[in-house]
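Lecture 7 notes: from sequence to structure.

We start with a single chain of 72 residues. Read the sequence below before looking at the structure.
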Amino acid sequence: MTKQVAHPMMKLQRKVSSLVESNIIQPGDRIGKIALLLGNDWSYWKNELLDFDFTSQDQIQELLAVEDWDED
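Now the structure, written as tokens:
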């Protein structure tokens, strides 16, 4: 039996979804707003987001709408 490891972007997506559910951020907010909440981890996540063609100006709802993080 093999254990599937979640894609790192799925982890970010879950974290951001939790922030939205807690009303800390809104789906219409810009992704850049989470930079303040992620602190030192932001530079890593910013690079990951750029790899998937996201910018800090995109809306959080666009990040949450991704269903598959395959890198093919």
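The chain has one domain: 8-64. Keep this in mind for problem set 3.
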